[in-house]
Design brief:
mainly beta; Immunoglobulin-like; 7-stranded parallel beta sheet; 6-stranded parallel beta barrel; 41% strand; disordered N terminus
Length: 365
Amino acid sequence: MKINTKYPINILSKWKCFLGAMLTVTFMLPATAVSQSSPAPVDLGTAGDFVILTKAGITAQAGDLITGDIGVSPIAAEAMTGFGLIMDPSNTFSISSLVIGKIYASNYSDPTPAKMTTAIGDMKTAYNNAAGRTLPDYTELYAGDLTGQTLTHGLYKWGTDVLVSAGGVTISGAANDVWIFQISGKLILASGAIVTLSGAAQASNIFWQVAGEEVTLGTDAEMKGIILCDKQIVMNTGVKLNGRALAETIVTLAVNTAITSPSGVTDIKNDLGPQEFELFQNYPNPFNPSTRIQYSLEKAAEVTLKVYNLLGLEVATLVNGRQEAGRYAVPFNTNKGTLTLSSGVYFYRLEAGSFVSTRKLVLIR
């Protein structure tokens, strides 16, 4: 058999060039096209029981509303300013008209000091866990400016500040996907910036580990996720945070800041939920100037919660709309807005579907 050897070198060279080009195209595919597994979530331990947890203090302003427990340690309760703290008779926690939840400090009665020491230790462990993750899926992505981008699950790392301007950023993925952002500099959400969740992405599975001097959330910014900050977190007027603010130093809130604990698989507790409709006694009672009214809904219903004087005249509407089954706590502040009430006995009435209940509260000026 005779083999044709005409121009063998040229032919082989062309094939080599062709194969080389194919390999080059393969290796130049963008990183987002490469399939990757989602990182494991960061275990918050008992720090996950708090929506705000700090070592050095929390500052609040009028109009703030925090849904969830907050706490400080090793610093004492005096480092939580603006809350108008009201001590529970047990001396293990306090409450505030600004907080739908309990407030803890290291100088409260046992077992609170040990509880807070453990939570602060767990916060540090969680921070180190997030900071210590290796082999990032993305490094220095978009030079730290995430404005207008869509981020899929993975481990992200920046050696600089990270900025989200007014154009916002979208975090997109499935319910079990996890995002860990390792940021060596500051994290800045500009005024009006919104972190939007897409698909079934959960705020409870997003972790912002920030080593820089500050996390700053600008006026009317909307943030989602767990902030693990080595220093301080500053939230300006009108900020909304669906997540947790866990800081090694302080958390500062401006006027009308709203913080809610994140929903998601990591927040599910061994709790079957309310088994009946119920209206509870307000606390504190008597009160001045604010108190808190709690109730539970067995199932979703159209709900109204109103306050009346002794003549049966309505003086305030606290709730008016449909609510899902669950437990609720509503602040009633007689110094808020244009409401001016004199000392005396008042009544609050809950209507939820066919359920109706009324209780008495006492205002002392």
